[in-house]
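Exercise 7.
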Amino acid sequence: MTPMGNPGRFAGFLYVLTSIVGFFAMGYVPGKLIVHGNTAATVNNIAAHEVLFRFGVAGQLISQAAFIFVAFALYKLLAGVDRRHASLMVILIVVSVPIAFVNELNSLAALALVRGVDFLSIVEKPQRDAFAMLFLNLHGRGLVVAELFWGLWLFPLGLLVYRSRFLPRFLGVWLGLAGAAWVILSLVSVVLPQYQSEVYTYTQPAVFGEIAFMLWLLIKGAKPPALAPAAPAVA
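Solution. The predicted structure, written as tokens, is:
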């Protein structure tokens, strides 16, 4: 059966495709260019691989915009379970998108400082490099804010999956745990940043619930049962 013929498989296809773009932008590109604790190396990497950095910014914008379509595909799949929870799921996703979009201005500001555009020529290079790192750090903090909503939307999604009867209940539970993991990661990064790495390590098994869900949809698919026709009114 083609993805278009199965609403679950179609949602899974969009979900996986969007996640691949998101991983490229948020995982691969920073891993190649940003050297934590080393401003000079980071700035030199961005200057030498400006196109890759720009592709990372573009990937962030594309993945965030595309996730709106993932949200509506999941809404179409699960609205019959509980329309209010499905609507809440979409709202929480949509709220996170402008946060992520505005956050990319930090990346563009960092790139302008690295390139040393004309109007910044009066600023010495060491100062520009320091400000570039400041904007890159602000970009990371912006992702922490978005992470809160990346977790919150998984709670209504997990509940919908758990109650759906056409998707495995364990996936609903796992999605709920993934939502809790993202929320905890976001709050710990703000309140207790020194423990961020440890908490990230411990929460990974829960976060994998989202990956398991999207792969289940892509491979197995899902199709909500047809609604029973309404009984004719008795005269």
